[in-house]
Amino acid sequence: MFPLSRINLLKLLLILSIFGFLFIAQNNFNDYTIRILNNIAIFIVLAASYNLINGVTGQFSLEPNGFVAIGAYVTALALLSEDMKWELFQLEDPHPYILALNLDLIPALLLSGIAATVVAVFLATPVFRVRGDYLAIVTLGFGFIIKVIAINTPEFTNGSIGLNEIPSVINLYWTGGIAILTVIFMLNIIYSKYGRAMKAVRDDEDAASAIGINTFKIKTLAFGTSAFFEGVGGGLLAILLSTISPDLFTFFLTFQLLIIIVLGGLGSMTGAIIGSVIVIGGMEWLRFLDAPLSLFGFDFGSHPGLRMVVFSVLLIIIMLFAREGIMGKKELSDIFKKKGSK
Amino acid sequence: MTLEVKNITKNFGGVVAINDTSFSIEEKQIYGLIGPNGAGKTTLFNIITGNYKPSSGDVFLDGVKITKKKNYKIVQAGIARTFQNIRLFSSMSVEENILIGFDNTAKYSYLESMFRLPRFYSNEKNIKQKAYEIMEFLDIAQFKDELATSLSYGSQRKVEIARALATQPKLLLLDEPAAGMNPNETHELANLLFKIRDHYNLTILLIEHDMKFVNHICEKVMVLDYGKTIFEGDIKDAINDEEVIKAYLGDFKHA
Amino acid sequence: MDISTFIQQLINGVSLGSMYGLIAIGYTMVYGVLRLINFAHGDIMMVGAFAAFFGMSILGLNIYTGVLFAILISVIVGVLTDKVAYKPLRHAPRISLLITAIGISFFLENIVNVLFGGTPKSFHAPEFFDQTFTIGDAIFTPLVFIVPFVTIILLLLLLALLYKTKYGIAIRALAFDIKTVALMGIDVNRIIMYVFVIGSSLAAVGGVFWAISYPILTPYMGIMIGLKAFAAAVLGGIGSVYGAFLGGIILGFTEVIFVAFFPEHGGYKDAIAFIFLIFVLLFRPTGIMGINFEKARF
Question: Most C-beta atoms within 10 A of its C-beta, which of A228, B190, C74, C111?
């Protein structure tokens, strides 16, 4: 069933070496580094899925922070025991459905994904039927609405206080493993008739429908898939952070993902991975910008927020001068192909 | 009749683009839609393919009414088209562009592709095989992995035709296929279209301005002027028709 | 609710709606001319508010020169945004432009954050605005009448500009067919610049009005307001200046009435704009004024 060729053996080797690296990291690196690696892994999950609707299908969307929030809350609520919920919910008593929600890790993550997908399909239908243009604005607004809902339904979410003491049930193997799985799934979709259809919609939507593609269905499929994995990523994030609240999932999260996939190359999964490493690593490294600065002996004082300014300038510069990003639309395997695909 | 266009009228705001036009095409015919610029030929095309909805009138494919159907559904029903200004998918190779045409015949689900289940592999193999056959038939197989938009103009035209053929149509609509070609290339194209028509049992409807080409290849023509049919029939008779001459004012003398 | 409270809410709603309308006009005009949703526009309003704050509290300007200063700064920022970030991408794929707009939006928010610091700023309007007067049982401040009045004047001026001057005709022509206008020998980029000047000025005025009404300023205030203003523009019919104003009024009014009738659900008032947006997309995508930009793509 699984074609045993040189390519597939190489891929298998790659996955094994990644797990090898994770093993070494989990047992030898310090907590800080492990935390960053976990972060990078989760961002790979998010960036790879965000890339599917934005980069591969070419529909500009700003959805991640909303679906990540949904996923985070679903997983957190599913993992917290009934007793914990009674203890944590301070504004109002937890709703019976919330109390009844008790799942293990994998079902919790799956439910996170499914919840996000259901919402996504509802959102996407009015937008894709009419004007794809509006997807960005609708998803941007959606991110805010989720926060509004989270704050105003304390019997479900504990309102602005949020949830904490989420059990820490994952480690690098989980985040790394799910990251690998997500990338594999995304690549499988891209190298199939569905991926071809998505790229066709991106390249020339009118020609795509002139060739028999149901563009509405394809866009919804891509959007729903992105939502699913963003929900799962949100669940992972909730566990990693162990504390979540409505104002945690701000537009900045979406903005980071946008920079990641633009830097890596819109439409390239390899690019999403590279971008995640660079941006998350870079965010840490650039922390010094938010602290008191002194350059060449001059004291510039402390300007928190300078890091964000640098990132926004970075995005603008990439769009103006290096729109294709690092990988363009290509994957690592395309570079090794013999014939000249550009 | 493969295609029947019945009393189509199309208004755009105050402009009457198509004015009560009718014509029909028989099986395996090569039919030409000609007329001066702005006569409404591409509009008519777009109505047949479902991109525009007619203000009134109907279109029938093999007796089945296809008016007002969504355009991707009409493609699935058996009408494929090419564009005046060659719209290939710019990020994909020649093979991928053609595979997209076959994608409706590949019967595997989304989940099957995500999890790489057996049906995925067998269907992909199948359509890749079929795509290769078309590429060989049109003599573009050597460009299989090249970026589609990096080919020469003539080859790109062939890729576009191949992509349309991949949808396994009953009726092929060609929008100015000879545009930008020299007499040699035009002659080659005409022979290619005959070959395709015979091999794939197609009916062909084309819009053209190159009268030599139309003369060579079309068995029947319909002349459109200001959205109205002013002549339908044999091209030899078209040349002598008074209305047609008035519409063109002399173009036919050079055919 | 009695009649005078209702009138009070009505006027409050119209006032709020006028502010939304002022900002919505900028969105609708830029979309009409460039087919671009200028995500940074709400932040231009924020820049105007901060500029007025800076001018009045640090430079010692009065309210009139403060407004002019706000307009000046907003126009400079708006025009620069177009020249530096949007103009180079005129012929790039749409998505590049949208991403850049997001980048500019984020940049503006954070540069203001760095320049002014993270703590919310308190806007001190002249005491004139603090007076209240009552009509029957209803309580009003002067601003609540000034805002709609000024907005309508500006709107009329804008309509006069659009329909009676050659610049206005050029702008409207651009909204219909940018390629043909370029072929007519008209400097398209200059016309686009005028659109940004107009939109930014109105947003600045809206920003100052907002600062007087809700005197706590933060660098991120423009996001939510911008989103709502865009929803208002879509509701009214994107591309139509009347529509932007109309949509703004409807939205402002609905928000105020909603909070008045359902105070316990007040937290949801921000969702109203979003609901309008979805509704319009579902039932009347061209908005109330029904402008249709779908051109022949074949």
Answer: C74
| Contact list, B120 vs chain A (CB under 8 Å) | 192
Nearest to A323 among C92, C223, C274 (CB): C92
Longest CA–CA separation in chain C, Å: 62
Looking at residue A339, its pLDDT comes to: 43
Hey, what are A57's tokens? 């299908």
Please check whether residue B168 touches A, CB under 8 A. no
- Does the beta-carbon distance from A266 to C224 stay under 8 Å? no
Which stretches of chain B sit within 8 Å of chain C by CB? 42, 45-46, 51, 83
**pLDDT higher than 80, residue C1:** no
A328 touches chain C (CB under 8 A): no
Subunits in contact with chain A (3 or more CB pairs closer than 8 Å): B, C
pLDDT given for residue A229 in this prediction? 97
How far does chain C reach from its first CA to its final CA, in angstroms? 56
According to DSSP, the β-strands at B171-175 and B203-207 are: parallel
ipTM: 0.89
Which of A130, A146, A155 has the alpha carbon at shortest distance from A71?
Answer: A146
Residue B19 · residue B226 · CB < 8 Å? yes
With residue B36 as reference, give the H or E element that holds it: none
Which range among A94-98, A196-200, B179-183 has the greatest average pLDDT? Answer: A196-200
Compare CB distances from A145 to C234, C271, C281 and report the shortest one's residue. Answer: C271
Name the least confident of B185-194, B242-251, C24-33, C113-122.
B242-251
Q: Which residues on chain B are in Cβ contact (under 8 Å) with C298?
A: 42, 45-46, 51, 83
The tens digit of pLDDT for each residue in C25-84 reads 999 999 988 888 999 999 999 999 999 999 988 888 888 899 999 999 999 999 999 999
Enumerate neighbours of B (3 or more CB pairs within 8 A). Answer: A, C
Identity of the amino acid at A232: V
Dihedral angle, C-alpha A303, A309, A310, A314, nearest 10 °:
180
Alpha helices in chain B (DSSP H): 41-49, 71-77, 94-102, 110-114, 118-137, 153-166, 183-200, 211-217, 235-240, 242-248
Q: Using CB atoms, which residue from C95, C265, C273 is nearest to A60?
A: C95
Chain A contact for C10 (CB, 8 A cutoff):
no
Q: Is C298 on the interface with B (CB under 8 A)?
A: yes
pLDDT at C292: 67
Checking phi first, is residue B34 left (phi over 0); if not, alpha (psi -120 to 50) or beta? beta
- CA B162 to mean position of chain CA atoms: 11
- Contact (Cβ atoms closer than 8 angstroms) between residue A109 and residue A236: yes
- Measure C281 CA to nearest chain A CA, in Å: 6
Mean pLDDT of A141-153: 90
Least confident of A249-253, B50-54, C127-131: C127-131
User: In this complex, do B101 and A211 lie within 8 Å of one another by their Cβ atoms?
Assistant: yes
pLDDT at C295: 44
- In this structure, of A221-230, B36-45, C34-43, C217-226, the range with the lowest mean pLDDT score is B36-45
Q: Is the CB of A141 less than 8 angstroms away from the CB of C99?
A: no
Q: In whole angstroms, what is the distance from residue C122 CA to residue C211 CA?
A: 9
Angstrom distances, CA of residue B177 to CA of A212, A225, B252: 20, 39, 19
Task: Mark yes or no for CB contact B101/A337 under 8 Å.
Answer: no
Per the model's pLDDT, the better-predicted residue between A166 and B166 turns out to be B166
**A66 alpha-carbon distance from chain centroid:** 11
Q: How far is A103 from chain C (nearest CA, A)?
A: 31
Residues B103-152: tens digit of each pLDDT: 888 888 888 888 988 889 999 999 999 999 999 999 899 999 999 999 99
Question: Sign of dihedral through CA atoms C34, C35, C36, C41?
Answer: positive
